[in-house]
# Entry
Amino acid sequence: MQDDISERVVATIADAFGIIARTGLGEARASGTESLGAYECVLRAYAYTALHTAVAQLPARDCLEQAVDQEPDYVEALAQLAYLYREEYHHGFNPQVDSLDRGLELARRALELDPTHQAAQLALAQIHWSRHELDEFFPAADRAVALNPNEAKTLASVGLSTTLAGRWDRGAALIRQAIALNPYHPGWYYLALFHDHYRKGQYQEALGEAQKINLPELWETYSTLAQTYGQWGRKQQAEAAVAKLLKLYPDFARSAWREFRKRNLPEAEIAHLVDGLRKAGLPVPEPTT
# Structure
Protein backbone atom coordinates (compact mmCIF):
# COMPACT_ATOMS: atom_id res chain seq x y z
CA MET A 1 0.00 0.00 0.00
CA GLN A 2 2.79 2.43 0.96
CA ASP A 3 4.65 1.72 -2.30
CA ASP A 4 1.46 2.34 -4.31
CA ILE A 5 0.88 5.69 -2.59
CA SER A 6 4.51 6.67 -3.18
CA GLU A 7 4.25 5.88 -6.87
CA ARG A 8 1.16 8.05 -7.23
CA VAL A 9 2.80 10.96 -5.42
CA VAL A 10 5.90 10.74 -7.63
CA ALA A 11 3.81 10.54 -10.79
CA THR A 12 1.57 13.45 -9.86
CA ILE A 13 4.54 15.66 -9.07
CA ALA A 14 6.75 14.66 -11.99
CA ASP A 15 4.31 14.07 -14.82
CA ALA A 16 3.95 16.62 -17.61
CA PHE A 17 0.29 17.07 -16.63
CA GLY A 18 0.91 17.09 -12.91
CA ILE A 19 1.16 19.81 -10.32
CA ILE A 20 4.58 21.11 -11.37
CA ALA A 21 3.73 21.63 -15.02
CA ARG A 22 0.29 23.04 -14.21
CA THR A 23 1.78 25.77 -12.01
CA GLY A 24 4.73 26.58 -14.26
CA LEU A 25 7.39 25.55 -11.73
CA GLY A 26 7.65 29.07 -10.31
CA GLU A 27 11.27 30.10 -10.46
CA ALA A 28 12.62 26.70 -11.45
CA ARG A 29 14.66 26.09 -14.59
CA ALA A 30 14.62 23.06 -16.83
CA SER A 31 17.72 20.94 -16.94
CA GLY A 32 19.96 21.88 -19.83
CA THR A 33 19.12 25.58 -20.08
CA GLU A 34 19.60 28.78 -18.15
CA SER A 35 16.95 30.53 -20.23
CA LEU A 36 13.52 30.96 -18.72
CA GLY A 37 12.26 31.84 -22.20
CA ALA A 38 13.39 28.48 -23.56
CA TYR A 39 11.77 26.68 -20.66
CA GLU A 40 8.53 28.56 -21.22
CA CYS A 41 8.56 27.10 -24.73
CA VAL A 42 8.74 23.64 -23.17
CA LEU A 43 5.80 24.48 -20.93
CA ARG A 44 3.84 25.50 -24.03
CA ALA A 45 4.48 22.00 -25.39
CA TYR A 46 3.19 20.50 -22.15
CA ALA A 47 0.08 22.63 -22.44
CA TYR A 48 -0.49 21.49 -26.01
CA THR A 49 -0.25 17.85 -24.95
CA ALA A 50 -3.06 18.39 -22.48
CA LEU A 51 -5.25 20.47 -24.81
CA HIS A 52 -4.61 18.86 -28.22
CA THR A 53 -5.64 21.88 -30.28
CA ALA A 54 -4.14 23.48 -33.38
CA VAL A 55 -4.24 26.82 -31.57
CA ALA A 56 -2.02 25.47 -28.79
CA GLN A 57 0.29 23.57 -31.13
CA LEU A 58 1.36 26.46 -33.36
CA PRO A 59 2.82 28.87 -30.76
CA ALA A 60 4.48 25.98 -28.93
CA ARG A 61 6.13 24.79 -32.13
CA ASP A 62 7.23 28.27 -33.21
CA CYS A 63 8.59 29.03 -29.75
CA LEU A 64 10.54 25.76 -29.60
CA GLU A 65 11.99 26.30 -33.06
CA GLN A 66 13.45 29.58 -31.85
CA ALA A 67 14.66 27.99 -28.61
CA VAL A 68 16.44 25.20 -30.50
CA ASP A 69 18.07 27.71 -32.83
CA GLN A 70 19.41 29.61 -29.82
CA GLU A 71 20.26 26.54 -27.68
CA PRO A 72 20.87 23.60 -30.03
CA ASP A 73 21.94 21.31 -27.17
CA TYR A 74 18.88 21.87 -24.99
CA VAL A 75 17.65 18.28 -24.95
CA GLU A 76 14.16 18.86 -23.56
CA ALA A 77 13.43 21.45 -26.25
CA LEU A 78 14.71 19.10 -28.96
CA ALA A 79 12.53 16.30 -27.63
CA GLN A 80 9.40 18.41 -27.34
CA LEU A 81 9.86 19.91 -30.80
CA ALA A 82 10.31 16.43 -32.27
CA TYR A 83 7.04 15.46 -30.57
CA LEU A 84 5.22 18.52 -31.94
CA TYR A 85 6.43 17.77 -35.46
CA ARG A 86 4.98 14.29 -35.09
CA GLU A 87 1.72 15.76 -33.81
CA GLU A 88 1.34 18.15 -36.74
CA TYR A 89 1.53 15.14 -39.05
CA HIS A 90 -0.68 12.93 -36.89
CA HIS A 91 -3.51 15.41 -36.36
CA GLY A 92 -2.96 17.71 -39.33
CA PHE A 93 -2.37 20.67 -36.99
CA ASN A 94 -0.53 23.45 -38.87
CA PRO A 95 1.26 20.93 -41.08
CA GLN A 96 4.61 21.60 -42.73
CA VAL A 97 6.61 19.61 -45.25
CA ASP A 98 8.46 16.49 -44.04
CA SER A 99 7.24 16.75 -40.44
CA LEU A 100 8.18 13.18 -39.55
CA ASP A 101 11.64 13.40 -41.11
CA ARG A 102 12.40 16.59 -39.20
CA GLY A 103 11.05 15.09 -36.00
CA LEU A 104 13.12 11.94 -36.42
CA GLU A 105 16.29 13.98 -36.86
CA LEU A 106 15.58 16.01 -33.72
CA ALA A 107 14.73 12.96 -31.60
CA ARG A 108 17.93 11.21 -32.65
CA ARG A 109 19.93 14.37 -31.93
CA ALA A 110 18.39 14.61 -28.45
CA LEU A 111 19.25 10.98 -27.70
CA GLU A 112 22.81 11.46 -28.88
CA LEU A 113 23.11 14.20 -26.27
CA ASP A 114 21.31 12.23 -23.57
CA PRO A 115 20.51 8.54 -24.24
CA THR A 116 18.47 8.38 -21.02
CA HIS A 117 16.11 11.25 -21.86
CA GLN A 118 12.60 9.82 -21.66
CA ALA A 119 10.77 12.47 -23.69
CA ALA A 120 13.26 12.09 -26.52
CA GLN A 121 12.90 8.30 -26.44
CA LEU A 122 9.11 8.67 -26.48
CA ALA A 123 9.26 11.07 -29.43
CA LEU A 124 11.45 8.62 -31.33
CA ALA A 125 9.00 5.79 -30.63
CA GLN A 126 5.96 7.80 -31.69
CA ILE A 127 7.64 8.95 -34.89
CA HIS A 128 8.43 5.33 -35.79
CA TRP A 129 4.77 4.52 -35.09
CA SER A 130 3.55 7.32 -37.38
CA ARG A 131 5.95 6.09 -40.09
CA HIS A 132 4.36 2.62 -39.72
CA GLU A 133 7.71 1.24 -38.59
CA LEU A 134 6.25 -0.98 -35.90
CA ASP A 135 9.33 -3.20 -35.62
CA GLU A 136 11.18 -0.06 -34.50
CA PHE A 137 8.29 1.37 -32.50
CA PHE A 138 7.77 -1.45 -30.02
CA PRO A 139 11.36 -1.69 -28.70
CA ALA A 140 11.69 2.11 -28.66
CA ALA A 141 8.43 2.35 -26.74
CA ASP A 142 9.58 -0.27 -24.24
CA ARG A 143 12.78 1.71 -23.67
CA ALA A 144 10.77 4.90 -23.11
CA VAL A 145 8.61 3.24 -20.46
CA ALA A 146 11.58 1.57 -18.77
CA LEU A 147 13.34 4.93 -18.29
CA ASN A 148 10.64 5.95 -15.79
CA PRO A 149 7.66 3.61 -15.28
CA ASN A 150 5.93 6.25 -13.12
CA GLU A 151 5.73 8.91 -15.84
CA ALA A 152 2.07 8.79 -16.76
CA LYS A 153 2.23 10.69 -20.06
CA THR A 154 4.75 8.21 -21.44
CA LEU A 155 2.68 5.24 -20.28
CA ALA A 156 -0.43 6.74 -21.85
CA SER A 157 1.23 7.68 -25.15
CA VAL A 158 2.78 4.26 -25.52
CA GLY A 159 -0.41 2.62 -24.32
CA LEU A 160 -2.58 4.36 -26.89
CA SER A 161 -0.23 3.65 -29.79
CA THR A 162 0.21 0.04 -28.67
CA THR A 163 -3.54 -0.44 -28.44
CA LEU A 164 -4.21 1.00 -31.88
CA ALA A 165 -1.50 -1.20 -33.36
CA GLY A 166 -3.44 -4.25 -32.18
CA ARG A 167 -1.65 -5.23 -28.95
CA TRP A 168 -4.84 -4.58 -27.09
CA ASP A 169 -4.16 -6.04 -23.65
CA ARG A 170 -0.72 -4.51 -23.27
CA GLY A 171 -1.91 -1.08 -24.43
CA ALA A 172 -5.00 -1.00 -22.25
CA ALA A 173 -2.98 -2.08 -19.21
CA LEU A 174 -0.54 0.81 -19.73
CA ILE A 175 -3.39 3.29 -20.06
CA ARG A 176 -5.06 2.08 -16.88
CA GLN A 177 -1.75 2.34 -15.06
CA ALA A 178 -1.29 5.92 -16.33
CA ILE A 179 -4.79 6.91 -15.19
CA ALA A 180 -4.17 5.39 -11.76
CA LEU A 181 -0.86 7.22 -11.43
CA ASN A 182 -2.07 10.71 -12.28
CA PRO A 183 -5.59 12.12 -11.78
CA TYR A 184 -4.82 15.20 -13.93
CA HIS A 185 -4.69 13.35 -17.24
CA PRO A 186 -6.28 14.76 -20.43
CA GLY A 187 -9.20 13.13 -22.19
CA TRP A 188 -7.24 11.45 -24.97
CA TYR A 189 -6.16 8.78 -22.48
CA TYR A 190 -9.63 7.28 -22.84
CA LEU A 191 -9.26 6.65 -26.58
CA ALA A 192 -7.40 3.40 -25.96
CA LEU A 193 -10.06 2.12 -23.57
CA PHE A 194 -12.78 3.09 -26.04
CA HIS A 195 -11.11 1.00 -28.75
CA ASP A 196 -10.54 -1.93 -26.42
CA HIS A 197 -14.24 -2.09 -25.51
CA TYR A 198 -15.53 -1.29 -28.99
CA ARG A 199 -13.56 -4.08 -30.65
CA LYS A 200 -15.21 -6.56 -28.25
CA GLY A 201 -18.70 -5.27 -29.02
CA GLN A 202 -18.97 -3.81 -25.52
CA TYR A 203 -20.73 -0.70 -26.76
CA GLN A 204 -22.09 0.51 -23.44
CA GLU A 205 -18.60 0.45 -21.94
CA ALA A 206 -17.15 2.00 -25.11
CA LEU A 207 -19.67 4.84 -24.89
CA GLY A 208 -18.69 5.50 -21.29
CA GLU A 209 -15.05 5.94 -22.35
CA ALA A 210 -15.97 8.04 -25.40
CA GLN A 211 -17.98 10.45 -23.26
CA LYS A 212 -14.87 11.16 -21.17
CA ILE A 213 -12.63 12.20 -24.08
CA ASN A 214 -14.12 15.71 -24.26
CA LEU A 215 -11.52 17.38 -26.49
CA PRO A 216 -13.57 19.67 -28.77
CA GLU A 217 -10.92 20.04 -31.51
CA LEU A 218 -10.14 16.33 -31.75
CA TRP A 219 -12.28 14.56 -34.31
CA GLU A 220 -12.11 11.33 -32.33
CA THR A 221 -14.24 13.03 -29.67
CA TYR A 222 -17.18 12.84 -32.06
CA SER A 223 -16.32 9.80 -34.20
CA THR A 224 -16.21 7.57 -31.12
CA LEU A 225 -19.63 8.81 -30.00
CA ALA A 226 -21.07 8.37 -33.49
CA GLN A 227 -19.70 4.83 -33.75
CA THR A 228 -21.08 3.65 -30.43
CA TYR A 229 -24.45 5.35 -30.82
CA GLY A 230 -24.63 3.92 -34.34
CA GLN A 231 -23.95 0.38 -33.17
CA TRP A 232 -26.48 0.81 -30.38
CA GLY A 233 -29.17 2.07 -32.74
CA ARG A 234 -29.56 5.41 -30.96
CA LYS A 235 -30.27 7.38 -34.11
CA GLN A 236 -30.80 10.85 -32.69
CA GLN A 237 -27.61 10.86 -30.63
CA ALA A 238 -25.68 9.28 -33.50
CA GLU A 239 -26.80 11.95 -35.96
CA ALA A 240 -25.89 14.71 -33.49
CA ALA A 241 -22.39 13.27 -33.09
CA VAL A 242 -21.98 12.99 -36.87
CA ALA A 243 -23.04 16.62 -37.27
CA LYS A 244 -20.35 17.74 -34.82
CA LEU A 245 -17.79 15.51 -36.52
CA LEU A 246 -18.53 17.01 -39.92
CA LYS A 247 -18.46 20.55 -38.57
CA LEU A 248 -14.90 19.91 -37.38
CA TYR A 249 -13.84 17.70 -40.31
CA PRO A 250 -16.21 18.25 -43.29
CA ASP A 251 -14.51 15.66 -45.53
CA PHE A 252 -14.35 12.93 -42.92
CA ALA A 253 -16.54 10.45 -44.80
CA ARG A 254 -14.01 10.28 -47.63
CA SER A 255 -11.05 10.46 -45.26
CA ALA A 256 -12.13 7.89 -42.66
CA TRP A 257 -10.23 4.89 -44.02
CA ARG A 258 -7.07 6.97 -44.50
CA GLU A 259 -7.27 8.39 -40.97
CA PHE A 260 -7.79 4.98 -39.38
CA ARG A 261 -4.98 3.42 -41.42
CA LYS A 262 -2.75 6.32 -40.41
CA ARG A 263 -3.25 5.09 -36.83
CA ASN A 264 -2.05 1.55 -37.56
CA LEU A 265 -5.40 -0.04 -36.75
CA PRO A 266 -5.95 -3.59 -38.04
CA GLU A 267 -8.05 -3.67 -41.21
CA ALA A 268 -10.79 -5.75 -39.60
CA GLU A 269 -11.15 -3.20 -36.80
CA ILE A 270 -11.20 -0.32 -39.28
CA ALA A 271 -14.11 -2.03 -41.03
CA HIS A 272 -15.84 -2.34 -37.64
CA LEU A 273 -15.34 1.38 -36.94
CA VAL A 274 -16.59 2.31 -40.39
CA ASP A 275 -19.64 0.12 -39.84
CA GLY A 276 -20.47 2.14 -36.74
CA LEU A 277 -20.16 5.40 -38.67
CA ARG A 278 -22.41 4.12 -41.44
CA LYS A 279 -25.01 3.03 -38.90
CA ALA A 280 -24.76 6.55 -37.45
CA GLY A 281 -25.73 7.95 -40.85
CA LEU A 282 -22.33 8.88 -42.27
CA PRO A 283 -21.98 7.49 -45.83
CA VAL A 284 -18.38 6.29 -45.71
CA PRO A 285 -17.39 4.92 -49.15
CA GLU A 286 -15.22 1.88 -49.63
CA PRO A 287 -11.50 2.65 -49.90
CA THR A 288 -10.06 2.99 -53.40
CA THR A 289 -6.89 1.11 -52.45
User: Anything to note?
Assistant: The chain has two domains: 2-185, 193-279. The radius of gyration is 19 Å. The chain has a mean pLDDT of 89.
